[in-house]
Every structure is written in C-alpha cells, then in structure tokens.
Amino acid sequence: MACSLKCGSYFSGFNENMSSSSNSKASVSKKFPPLSFEFLGKPLVVPDQKKGSRNCSSRSENKFSVQAETACVSRSMRWWEKNLKPNMVKIHSAEELVSSLQNAGDRLVIIDFYSPGCGGCKALHPKICQLAEQNPNAIFLEVNYEELKNMCHCLNIHVLPFFRFYRGAEGRLCSFSCTNATINKFKNALAKHGSNRCSLGPAKGLDESELMKLASAGELSLSSLQLPSLKEETMEDLSIKRSMELSGWFDNADNNRMKLEKEGALL
Description:
This protein is an alpha+beta fold and 267 residues long. It folds into two domains: 2-12 and 20-50 and 61-75, no CATH class; 79-224, Glutaredoxin (3-Layer(aba) Sandwich). The chain has six helices and eleven strands. The longest helix is centred in the C-terminal third of the chain and has 28 residues, at 235-262. Belongs to the thioredoxin family. Residues 26-195 form the Thioredoxin domain.
C-alpha cells in the first residue's frame, strides 16, 4: 500500500554575520545566494530568509526547514507477505508455475491469483493462510497479478481474487472467484478435492492450449514444454510398434500365400 510521507530536515547557519575589516567597528551582514542541492533525487532551491527581528540574541541561530514528499511502500503494509505458511509458495514466472504443477505429484495444488491493490484479496488473505495451515498436504501457489500480468492474461484471469485447483493426472479440477463473504465456495472445493488419492500418470498441470499460448507470448520456452504430443517415443513404445508391424506383415504374407496356392501359382 502506497503511503505519502512528509520528511522535514533542518539546516542552520547558512546566513551568518561576517565582520568587515578590523578598522571598521560595525559589522556588515552579507547574504549568501540561494542554495541549490538535491534531496531524495529531486532538485530543491532554498530561498533567502526573510528579515526577522534584529533584537535576537547573538547565540540564536536562524533555521529553515525543507519539506519533501515521497511515496514509499512500508514493509509493515505488505499484507500479501504476512502470515504465510510453509506450503504457500510465491510464484515469480510462468516457468515456475508450470514446474510447480508438474512436480506436485498427487498433491492438491491451489493457485491463488491476487493483487496488492485488491480490497477483496486483502480481506480474504488471513482466511486463506488459516486454511493453508489446516491443510498442510495441499500446495498454495501465490501469483501476484501486478507482477505477472501478461501470464495471467494468457490464463484468462480477469477477476480477482481467483483460484484454480489442480491434482495429478486429472489436471484442473475447478476454478472460481470468491470473497470473504463467499468463502464457503472455497471450503467446499477444498473438502471435495482435498482427500488424498493416487492418480495414474504424471501430473498434467496447465492445459496444452494454455502452455502454447504462454510460449507464443514469450512467457515460456518451447524447450521447457513437456507436452505428450511433443515427447519422443520410448524404446518400449518403438518395440511394441515394430512387433505390431511385423505381425501385420506376416498376416498379410499368409493371406497372399493362400491366395496364390488357390490360384495354382505355386507348385
């Protein structure tokens, strides 16, 4: 959350009374030209002081203040970084998202799409952290929409907060948006898909169309994609395919031989 702070700095002694030559008993006040310097990366010019009372004590010092405004993001105001649990993982790129889904095995994976400026996301965050603590076997992937906006567009994320549930070879189980008022939608999905179970085959993760869209947008490299349609055939697959081809060839050969014998072409 951006906050505007006013910083005040005080400098003294720039307009000092300088005495003239020793032959003159009266002191002559000399004014320095306006000061110019940089403060927080911005040029500031300090004008001459206005003439004040001449009855001031010689020990008193004239002071002026320089005030500047700066925008800062306070560490204490980063609500999306508070109360995170060990099973809540921050995602920094599309490749991290794809890798996390593919390496999750049979564990339930929940992608939490949020934005630091989203009031609904901020209100819901403590409850999501609580549910993550209550379900340590589930993996919560935290995706900052503002940092990964292009990736979110490729995944058709247009409303926040938004959640996607994935598990193993089943891939995406469900997706929906909910707020603190409709948190039961999240709890019901967690109860339905949160039970431990085994699935045959590797974790599917994102759909193939989504992976190709991310690759075309420059968010993924084609070499990192592990699509079934792009995988090379294993030796076992090639062996089975070769056996089927040979079996078909012998079948055709027997049929051709029987046909030739019937026609008397062979002795």
